[in-house]
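Entry:
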Amino acid sequence: MIIKEIFGNKKIIGLAGNKSEGKTNNLMALVKDFRKKNKITPIYVYGLNEICLNWLEKFGNIYEFSSMDQLIDKENSLIIIEEFQRLKLNDRRYRDILNEFIDFIYHNNNWVIFSSPNLREYNSVIGGKIERWILKSLSSRDLINGCQLKEEVLNYNGRFKILKNIRIDKNKILVINKDYEKVLKFEYIEDVDDKKENIDIFSSKDIKKLSEKLSSKMSKRSI
């Protein structure tokens, strides 16, 4: 089970990588793999788009939450938080919210994965709570000076380090901690890839495709 290899004996994980490196797709593949062996543990998710939420419905016992208060009585569960900054978990002015949440994770025997599309959201406030990092491709220059994530990246000298940056395939993640590093491979979930239909406005092929699509729409309207 991939998720067991990610958490090990830890409870608080930080998933970090540049934009469009497949973080959300990897998370969906992680849930799918987890559900093959464990259909009972409740999973609570925040910040996922509608495509992902609809896709997750088939696995059952997965719930969307929109505020920290909705987690109060949850226990023995997996929590996935994308865009954690929207819950003010990295805001120095609301440090008590983060501290209470971390206490809640341990007291109620929960596990959490934090993620964000913006690397600079991993400041020292939330970075200090991350017990293990799982990394996608990222540029060290995009990280905040003095934050734990930047220190972790700069200290890493393995085969995926290129000129102070991490470079790894989209279907893989790099798990690093003080004891070892591990590369985990994920299934690509095409159904939740909301970027696959994106048009490259500088590509003649894509422009032609867009033109045909627009022409088709106009034809249907005129019927």
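Residues 204-222 form the longest helix (19 residues).
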